[in-house]
Write a structure and sequence with these properties.
The chain has about 280 residues and is of the alpha/beta class. The chain contains eleven helices and nine strands. Helix 9 links the parallel strand 6 and strand 7.
């Protein structure tokens, strides 16, 4: 039986809904056990393992089972599979990506590098969905080192990943610790690098006022709900120097502003554009 047939049968037998985070994890763990058969059937890396992402054009996505998910993000995860064969393709791709990066598969790493070069990518997002492990860091570092003209943005909820990636001191690799209302908020002595902050649904971090004034802050994101985005004005953050301009635009116009993402990559270099102390007051 094909991997796709086994996947659909397993999903139907157990009544799993890939739109639910916990079910998505179960489905990917099932697919991970079938990785040898996936490789025998041939993995359809049409873009060398890259997936489309409107923030940077393309991205690398990880498996959901490696997420250190908080209650806030697991119940609001925006990476919802589409259903049927489409969710199979999406979940299979991220399982294969995670496991091939974990084992530092040279053929896969070379394929990603070749795709970045062929597409002449200025930027690449690491973490389109799911999250990484420290075992995958050497492969990501090798990819970034091979294409120094490409800037890599890495979003993770894991402090150890963000710290280790930044400690490599690669000039084109910038990792950010992503905070939400349920994450720990580390002090500068523990984590001196860039952070991002997501809030919404009238939920925000208990240290919200400190976070929005933090000099390490790179970007503030408001929650996306389906096709809508919460207006940052509701929390008085519409003119904050670190509010995501694309999210603010989408909240006000109900249309995507992906060109903003591609044009503001310089602002996301927190080492060069640290927010001045006292530049925002709540």
């Amino acid at each position: 039986m094909s991997v796709q047939y086994q996947y659909l049968s397993y999903k139907r037998l157990h009544g799993l809904n890939p739109g639910k985070f916990s079910d998505r994890v179960k489905l990917q763990l099932f697919l991970r056990d079938l990785l040898p058969q996936m490789r025998e059937e041939g993995l359809p890396f049409t873009s060398g393992g890259l997936v489309r992402n409107y923030m940077t054009g393309f991205a690398l996505g990880f498996a959901y089972y490696d997420c250190r998910a908080t209650r806030f993000c697991s119940s609001r995860c925006y990476g919802l599979p589409l259903g049927g064969v489409f969710d199979f393709n999406m979940l299979r791709l991220s399982v294969a990506t995670s496991e091939l990066l974990r084992t530092h598969d040279r053929s896969f790493v070379r394929g990603v590098i070749n795709q970045i070069r062929a597409k002449r990518l200025d930027t690449l997002k690491i973490g389109h969905w799911g999250d990484a492990t420290l075992e995958q860091l050497p492969a990501v570092a090798d990819i970034a080192s091979a294409v120094p003209a490409t800037t890599f943005w890495w979003y993770t909820r894991k402090l150890d990943i963000a710290a280790a990636a930044n400690q490599l001191a690669l000039p084109n690799l910038r990792a950010y610790l992503s905070l939400d209302p349920d994450t720990d908020y580390p002090g500068r002595d523990l984590y001196p690098y860039g952070i991002t902050y997501l809030y919404g649904d009238n939920l925000y971090h208990e240290r919200h006022d400190e976070i929005v004034r933090d000099e390490r802050l790179v970007a503030i994101f408001t929650l996306k709900k389906g096709t809508a985005v919460e207006d940052p004005e509701r929390m008085g953050l519409g003119n904050h120097p670190r509010i995501c301009l694309e999210k603010r635009w989408k909240a006000r116009t109900h249309s995507k502003g992906e060109l903003m993402c591609l044009s503001c990559r310089g602002r996301c270099n927190y080492q060069a554009t640290a927010m001045p102390s006292g530049s925002f007051q709540t």
